[in-house]
Amino acid sequence: MMLALAGFQLAFALLGTALTFPTIETKKGLLSFPVLQKRSQSVNLRKRDNVVALGNVSTLTYLIRLEIGTPPQPVEVVLDTGSFELWVDPTCATAATQGQEEKCNASGRYVPGQSSTYVDKGAKQYIGYGKGGAEISYAADSILVPGSNSQPLRNVVFGVGVDTTELAWGVGGIGHGNGFNLHYNNLIDELHAQGITQSKAFSIALGGQYSETGGAIIFGGVDTKKFGGKLHKFDNMPPQIEGSKEGPWRYWVQMKSVGITTPNKVVATYEYSTMPALLDTGSTWSYLPQHIFDSLQDDFNATLSEDGSLEVPCSIVDQPGTVDFTFGDLTIQVPYSEFISQLEPGYCALGVLPRKGSYDRAVLGDSFLRSAYVIFDQTNQHLYMASYHDCGTNEQILSGEVGAALNLTGQCHSGHHLFASIPMCWIIVPAAFVLWVLVLFL
Questions:
Q1: In 3-state terms, what secondary structure has residue 46?
Q2: 392, 315 contact by CB (below 8 A)
Q3: Which residues of the chain form CATH 2.40.70.10?
Q4: Residue 375 β-bridge partners
Q5: Distance between CA atoms of residues 85 and 248, nearest Å
């Protein structure tokens, strides 16, 4: 989620924070649990008789579940590498669509008065995002960590929504915290400070659009059965200049080019596509400069819709083409089936919007990240990437010497990604039918 404003001057004492999912076991040195997928079956782009801009709509959102307070109160927040603070309890009535409002109401609420360990920190802050914003009141409370023998971390600082706009969920920001953007420990800081992880590094596999099980996040670890080939190391670029002000620390990586491989294997690379790119799980869409947006529109013969999307025939979703993003000598090829989303029945759009402003910067959201496996390393300010595939689970601890991850090789072959992006029922049902026919007639 593209963060615009944050509480840089808040100075709280060292406090802990963590996330929980009740069925997960942890290994000493890492914390691993699923990323939840919440899908809007129909975006219903009109609310209160107004056309809702596509940038304010999430067709597929990736969430993590927390249990806060005593007794624990379950809530869900967006998994967001584009911001760095945790807050809960959005104002559901202001969500962009009716469907998002309903999902917001069903995502759980934290009620401070129902927790015996709640502490009011006496501070408020406004946080602005690429879409909407939140006024939050800071609190401290317990948050349970899975695998910690039911002993919660104490006095965790986080925000409780006072008034929010255009946001259907709270936000679990996992960007750079204390010493970078904040004067108190955020999630990544506390997981390390409390000894749950051996490094301030984590890895994310979002999973495909149609994956039955979704993805996974591993704090302090990596899964060698979620990518293929070697990991490629990149510098986490420092804050990028936006106008006359230096922005906050984020996960910026130097992108070499953007291009396309058509279903008939014609390859094109777009001019002037070398630029810094922000890796942002909190953004459903990828934001590219207008000239690249225009090139994609031409190559897909797409129609610019009133909501800002590039509409394409849904029939091309299953064609074997890719949108290609190159970083150094690594190219992440995003299949059409992952880059194109069905917004409503019969209405499909490319997962890209034009980035406003005169600066050539890219924001690579979920439409890109579903096809990438990424390690975010705050210990050494590096990013590691490979193409995402799913061939099982093999988790490894990332110590303070995260550079050792370069010696890890992904155990998956290229074919796994194809099946990861297809609903399992599309595979299992035909296979079962073939087996039944063989048994019947042989």
A1: strand
A2: no
A3: 31-197, 235-384+399-406
A4: 203, 384
A5: 12
Q: Measure the CA dihedral 126/103/39/136, to 10°.
A: 10
Could you give the CA distance from residue 40 to residue 22 in angstroms, rounded to a whole number?
A: 25
Considering only CA atoms, which of 20, 388, 417 is closest in space to residue 205?
388
Q: Which CATH number fits domain 31-197: 1.10.3210.10, 3.30.450.40, 2.40.70.10, 1.10.10.60?
A: 2.40.70.10
CA-to-CA dists, residue 252 to 39, 85, 239, angstroms: 28, 18, 8
Token couple for 240? 């990028």
pTM for the predicted model, two decimal places: 0.85
How far is it, in rounded angstroms, from Cα 316 to Cα 9?
Answer: 49
Q: Quickly count helices (H) and strands (E) in the chain.
A: 7, 34
Cis geometry, peptide bond prior to residue 71 (ω within 30 degrees of 0)? yes
Task: Write the pLDDT tens digit of every residue in 348-389.
Answer: 999 999 987 767 899 999 999 999 999 999 989 999 999 999
The pLDDT tens digits of the residues spanning 89-138 come to 999 999 878 888 888 999 999 999 999 999 999 999 999 987 789 999 99
Report residue 21 as tokens. 């999912």
CATH 3.30.420.40 fits 235-384+399-406, yes or no: no
Across-strand partners of 119? 140
